[in-house]
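Box S1 | Example of a co-folding query
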Amino acid sequence: MTHDTLTITDNRTNQTYTLPIENGTVRALEFRQIKAYPEDFGLMTYDPAFMNTASCQSSITVIEGERGILQYRGYPIEVLAEHCTFLEIAYLLLFGDLPNETELKNWVSEITHHTMLHETTKKFMEGFRYDAHPMAMLVSTVAALSTVYPEAGNIHDPSNRLLQIKRLTGKMPSIAAMSYRHNLGFPYVYPDNDLSYSENFMNMLWKMVEPKYVANPVLAHALDILFILHADHEQNCSANVMRSVGSAHADPYLTTAAAAAALSGPLHGGANEEVLKMLDEIGSRENVPGYVKKVKEGHGKLMGFGHRIYKNHDPRAKIMKWTADQVFEVTGRNPKLDIALELERIALEDEYFIKRKLYPNVDFYSGIIYQAMGFKPEMFTVLFAIPRTVGWLAQWQEMFLQPEQKIARPRQIYTGHKARPFLALERRAPGGTRKD
Ligand code: ACO
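Box S1 (continued) | Returned holo structure for acetyl coenzyme *A
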């Protein structure tokens, strides 16, 4: 017998079962053969927040949480952030290898030529209230693109899938910039094909009456690095939504909108907005110990702290700090940084946070950088969604290539009523009881 097995004794029946172990994993379906009596459904596993369940096999991104390691397709994030552009990383995530010069030139050209939005998108955007949350505008507008590209529903055709991937990668910054300018009441700006991905995004955000927008190279580079850091993060909440909704064969625009909706939550990508609210609430360095005390007493959480997988440090947070220094050289130092640094210092020395392995995550510093660049906190998660779209699409595409792929459909443990008699309306009393 091979050693890569697990032997289980069911004490209800005294039966022994031997289950294969593959990649450090036991297939949950193997448990189904374990029955207490012949008609028994068989054992299930229960894991409400996927704490110990692999939902797919993936070769895109790996996180080693205990060692603070993040790699895209085998390359450490630190190396990629130092040497690559965001579109190189997009190619790497989507196609598996870094592009050579010709491949990169063609890829950049293709994405650049997909940045334009259909004119009706402008009208759609104009329908939102002046103070609509940009993330809600982004989610709705991405979903609305499904009406512009009905052929996107043909998800079984690889070339059609690739076309939609290019469109979504190209159009995401355009939608994000529209939502930004909508809040400000400024006219929307068309993309400029002479500019790089980040520069063009800055052009669509900040161009006013000048004939040609010239981006500050330090800020453009910083944005590109932030995009690289946020591009993918294996089976996080929104990637799981992307795969789950995609498994029902919804088109990629609706599927991406669903993933973006998950990202907007304050426990996920929405945390960067919450960090700034928290720093505002703290107000000054002197108030930090009092705030930390309140958190330890169970009043709220330190936003931007903690992670399901990282239990050492988040490698992205270190690059983020370096990027912040570059940005502050141009914009001036964000005074919130002092509060953030003090918060980090106190929390990292505190037994409560040490014991629970709570470290600053990617969202802790990103908001401070974005604010220094001139973004309101409401825009922060939108800035996260732009690069993460590439990660979602890589996960989505990989899902179709897996032979075991089926519609995602978990089981439940039913805790409700047993079958009970129906009561006609006139016989019902409050609380489901009968009148007589
Ligand atoms: N501040 C204070 N205490 C915390 C924090 C925090 N930020 N995060 C976790 N804890 C505590 C929990 O209360 C719990 O304590 P207990 O054991 O005494 O009950 C313990 O640490 C374990 O936390 P869980 O909530 O079980 O950890 P989980 O893996 O489910 O949650 C999460 C991870 C959602 C990121 C959590 O740490 C959190 O809410 N952080 C703040 C929000 C945030 O920054 N989210 C961004 C994550 S990165 C991203 O998605 C892009």
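Residues 158-184 form the longest helix (27 residues). The beta strands are 5-10, 15-20, 61-64, 69-72, 75-76.
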